[in-house]
């Protein structure tokens, strides 16, 4: 064995290693997808594959081409924020083949109740009804047009919309007070509650009508001296008028 | 004489022009058409120019569950109750004791009445979905590079490459991922990637009846999302985890997690 030559036992090992490493590169060449690593540690083609998925919801702009009249009616109503497909479901098929596929139009009470049934967790002011009390069994559409959902007549009671406040007041010391004892409600408030607002008390004298020391009210009602009691604050800064806690 | 000749030439010239007019119009039409075509090609979607994010106003959410319903229909999420890409949670905070969070069937069929007699202090709905984090733990743990952030800032799953090892489902602090029961791969919200690349809004944003969800470009000055971020005090979920979520919540209670 000459000096500098590899030991005999290393040669087969070297061949094996070289073959192994070459095999690795060959396997990598065939197994790793072409687009892998183009933009990062992922297969770039996957992005296009995901983007190529089928669209089911066409978007309200697609409805405008044919149903502009209904859209305009809806846009002028309290349902202006609703896209058509909220109620009518995914309509992409209908847009592509209007005659073959007709989108559903839900007419059951259950569907309207998903949004308008009373639920404590909903933001206050959102129009809600108690399904068991509100014309049970009647289809909503007999009185309300979903594309222009005006109330058919003024609600008989404020609690029709302000359910949360009404239920609190009902069990409080203020149970016998009517809403209009403290609030001034314009007659058209029920038609457009967001812009025609009811008046809320702005000064201490409103509460003073009953609770001031010299007020002409039953003597069981707790009295305070308006000049000294919690002077810099308004009454409702400390007491909640719909459920006053103080004894 | 000379004068007459020029006049003849002018008439000839005008006649020739009139005869050639249709050809000219054709030529302009062809050139114009080609220009419109090339303009359309230029309008092809380029992901590098986008960075998407979502805003959710909790005060506006009425818990109708239309978003979860639309998401299932748009993305063919299994209808069985356990699988969601987006869902609505109800938070009930009693005067004393633990906060109750529930989401029966993702809120699609409404919420049952809370227990009678419970002294409820506050209660509200919180829509949830993948937060499309800028530093996503799910991407970090994926052993095969099947989940990644696309160039437009959306966290996606390559369903052909996913081996279904469930590491990412474990790693997601928001519970936004699930194992698809048929495909046996991880699945999650894509911000409706197939819609936003076509210029449409995500399905949940499209159907939200109270505009509680806002979607748009995070980096553009004039986008509905930037307006949302300007006018609201926003927070993200679990900020302490440094995941840098891109779903921003307005009017979120301290109990929301």
Task: Walk me through the structure.
The complex is a heterodimer of chains A (247) and B (257). Among the domains of chain A are: 60-152, no CATH class; 176-247, no CATH class. Chain A is mostly helical and 247 residues long. Chain A is elongated. Chain A has helices at 10-31, 44-51, 60-64, 68-75, 84-88, 92-96, 109-116, 163-170, 179-182, 205-211, 235-238. In chain A, 34% of the residues lie in helices and 0% in strands. Chain B is of the alpha+beta class. Chain B has one domain (48-250): Alpha-Beta Plaits, CATH 3.30.70.20. Chain B contains 7 helices and 11 strands. Chain B has a 4-stranded mixed beta sheet with strand order 9-1-11-10, with helices on one face. The longest helix of chain B has 41 residues, at 2-42. Chain B is elongated. The relative contact order of chain B is 0.18. Classes of the chains: A mainly alpha (247), B alpha+beta (257). The A-B interface holds A 33, 36, 39-43, 46-47, 49-57, 59-60, 79, 81-83, 85-86, 89-90, 113-115, 117, 119-123, 126 and B 45, 47, 59-66, 70, 73-75, 90-92, 109-111, 114, 120, 123-125, 145-151, 156, 158-161, 190, 193-195, 197-198, 200-201, 203, 206-207, 209-211.
């Amino acid at each position: 064995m000459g000096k500098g030559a590899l030991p005999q036992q290393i040669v087969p090992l070297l061949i094996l290693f070289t073959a192994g490493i070459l095999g690795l590169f060959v396997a990598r060449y065939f197994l790793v997808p072409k687009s892998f690593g183009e933009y990062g540690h992922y297969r770039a083609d996957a992005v296009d594959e995901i983007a190529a998925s089928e669209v089911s919801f066409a978007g309200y702009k697609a409805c405008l081409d044919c149903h502009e009249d209904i859209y305009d009616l809806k846009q002028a109503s309290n349902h202006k924020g609703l896209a058509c497909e909220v109620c009518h479901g995914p309509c992409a098929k209908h847009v592509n083949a209007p005659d073959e596929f007709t989108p559903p139009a839900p007419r059951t009470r259950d569907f309207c109740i998903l949004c308008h049934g009373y639920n404590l967790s909903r933001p206050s002011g959102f129009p809600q009804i108690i399904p068991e009390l509100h014309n049970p069994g009647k289809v909503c559409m007999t009185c309300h047009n979903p594309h222009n959902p005006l109330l058919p007549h003024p609600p008989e009671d404020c609690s029709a919309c302000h359910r949360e406040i009404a239920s609190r007041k009902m069990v409080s010391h203020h149970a016998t007070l009517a809403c209009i004892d403290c609030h001034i409600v314009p007659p058209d408030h029920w038609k457009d509650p967001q812009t025609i607002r009811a008046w809320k008390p702005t000064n201490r004298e409103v509460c003073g009508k009953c609770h001031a020391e010299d007020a002409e009210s039953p003597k069981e009602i707790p009295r305070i001296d308006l000049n000294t009691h919690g002077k810099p604050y308004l009454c409702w800064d400390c007491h909640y008028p719909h459920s006053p806690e103080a004894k | 004489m000379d004068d007459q000749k020029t006049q003849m030439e002018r008439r000839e010239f005008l006649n020739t022009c009139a005869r050639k007019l249709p050809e000219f119009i054709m030529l302009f039409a062809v050139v114009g058409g080609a220009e419109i075509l090339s303009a359309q090609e230029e309008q092809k979607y380029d992901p590098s120019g986008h960075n998407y994010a979502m805003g959710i106003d909790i005060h506006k959410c009425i818990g109708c569950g239309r978003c979860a319903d639309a998401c299932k229909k748009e993305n063919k999420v299994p209808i069985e109750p356990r699988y969601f890409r987006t869902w609505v949670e109800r938070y009930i905070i009693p005067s004393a004791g633990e906060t109750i969070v529930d989401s029966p069937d993702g809120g699609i069929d409404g919420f049952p009445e809370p227990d009678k007699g419970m002294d409820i202090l506050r209660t509200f709905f919180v829509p949830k979905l993948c937060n499309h984090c800028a530093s996503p733990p799910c991407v970090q743990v994926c052993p095969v590079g099947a989940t990644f952030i696309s160039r437009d800032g959306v966290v996606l799953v390559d369903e052909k490459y996913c081996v279904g090892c469930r590491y990412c489902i474990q790693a997601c602090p928001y519970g936004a991922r699930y194992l698809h029961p048929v495909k046996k791969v991880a699945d999650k919200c894509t911000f409706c990637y197939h819609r936003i690349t076509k210029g449409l809004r995500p399905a949940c944003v499209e159907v939200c009846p109270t505009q509680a969800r806002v979607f748009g470009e995070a980096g553009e000055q004039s986008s509905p999302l930037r307006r949302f971020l300007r006018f609201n005090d926003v927070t993200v979920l679990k900020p302490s985890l440094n995941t840098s979520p891109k779903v921003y919540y307005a009017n979120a209670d301290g109990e929301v997690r």
